[in-house]
Specification:
- The chain has about 325 residues and is α/β, with parallel strands linked by helices.
- The chain folds into 2 domains: about 170 residues, NAD(P)-binding Rossmann-like Domain (Rossmann fold); about 150 residues, Dihydrodipicolinate Reductase, domain 2 (2-Layer Sandwich).
- About 40% of the residues lie in helices and about 25% in strands.
- It has 13 helices and 12 strands.
- Strands 3-2-1-4-5-6 form a 6-stranded mixed sheet, sandwiched between helices. Strands 8-10-9-7-11-12 form a 6-stranded mixed sheet.
- The longest helix has 18 residues.
- The radius of gyration is 20 Å and the shape is globular.
């Protein structure tokens, strides 16, 4: 039995999803030969540390009742640097302004000789090359499947299953909020404002939906794809971005009459990074509805490979994080 000690940095929806997934998969993981122990959890108010393994059920209950998992005041950086463990799971909220606190947490983990698994888009959108080189220089793994597409395994597919292929281009729908809004507008002939309000009431859209509806979230994800898969050193400023706020029910109806749907499509090729509403034929692989994400990958050997699935949700995102943890367990 291989013992893997991990920390969870950030204990919001995604961090709690990781804890729940580890609880539900305990027996499965042991059958695979892995004893995965969480030895530290940190949130904005402090940490819980137990080098023998934290009781995750207890930690989840405490978070629910008290709003924090903290038992002591040690912060994330102290936990990362001073507690001996193998993998830092960095799942603090995305900050595209300066990448913090995630960027500092990931830098500290790599400097301390710990592998990193993250769902945090900010550090990778801003400092991808620096972090990748820091991991390589220290002989460590930096895994980030959960940053793009939730449960949809885009990076694993390209880097592992499609190894040997040259990737010509990738296009996809990478924001479930926008996809839900456009789907509902088309189905119900409702104006954007009304559908946005409905999405907010259902918890699909944020109270401030700017990141989603202006295409910013999609563009950040596209930057990570461009850097990881195409070896670019792109930033958000390199993406030509148009959101969905100006789309009318009339435009959707006209598209529908001609057997098209309107989707917010992200596209990356060697010299082009775009996020914009596009007409998509109804039978096209990109014409998925609701909150689904989809990625269509054009390769030289395998042709076009398209994958679709849930692009958000704490358990769905935890699925990608768990996959990355197991990759490191097998390959370190």
């Amino acid at each position: 039995m291989k013992t893997i000690k991990i920390s969870i940095i950030g204990f919001g929806a995604v961090g709690q999803g990781v804890a729940r997934s580890l609880l539900s998969k305990q027996e499965y993981l042991k059958k695979q030969g892995y004893d995965i122990r969480v030895v530290g959890i940190s949130d904005s108010k402090g940490s819980e540390i137990n080098t023998k393994g934290i009781d995750l059920e207890d930690a989840l209950n405490r978070k629910k009742q008290k709003g924090t998992v903290a038992i002591d005041t040690s912060d994330a950086l102290e936990l990362i640097r001073n507690v001996k463990h193998d993998i830092v799971v960095e799942v603090t909220p995305t900050n595209i302004g300066n990448g913090e606190p995630g960027l500092g947490n990931i830098r500290a983990a790599l400097h301390a000789g710990r592998h990193v698994v993250t769902s945090n888009k900010g550090p990778l959108a801003l400092r991808f090359t620096e972090l990748k080189e820091a991991a390589e220089d220290n002989g460590l793994h930096l895994r980030y499947e959960a940053t793009v597409g939730g449960a949809v395994p885009i990076f694993n597919l390209v880097h592992e299953a499609l190894a040997g292929n040259s990737i010509i281009g990738i296009e996809g729908i990478l924001n479930g909020t926008c996809n839900y809004i456009l789907t509902r507008m088309e189905e119900e002939r409702m104006p954007y404002e009304l559908v946005l309000k409905e999405a907010q009431e259902l918890g699909i859209a944020e109270t401030d939906p700017t990141y989603d509806v202006e295409g910013i979230d999609s563009a950040i994800k596209l930057v990570i794809i461009a850097n990881s898969i195409f070896g670019q050193n792109a930033t958000y400023g390199d993406v030509d971005v148009t959101g969905i706020t100006k789309i009318t029910p009339e435009a959707l109806e006209l598209a529908n009459k001609n057997n098209y749907v309107v989707k917010l499509v992200c596209e990356v090729r060697e010299s082009r990074l775009t996020v914009a509403p596009r007409l998509v034929p109804k039978r096209h692989p990109l014409a998925v509805g609701g909150t689904l994400n989809v990625a269509s990958i054009l390769t030289d050997l395998a042709g076009r490979i398209t994958i679709s699935g849930k692009g958000a949700g704490s358990i769905e995102t935890a699925s990608s994080i768990l996959s990355d943890i197991l990759y490191i367990a097998r390959n370190s």
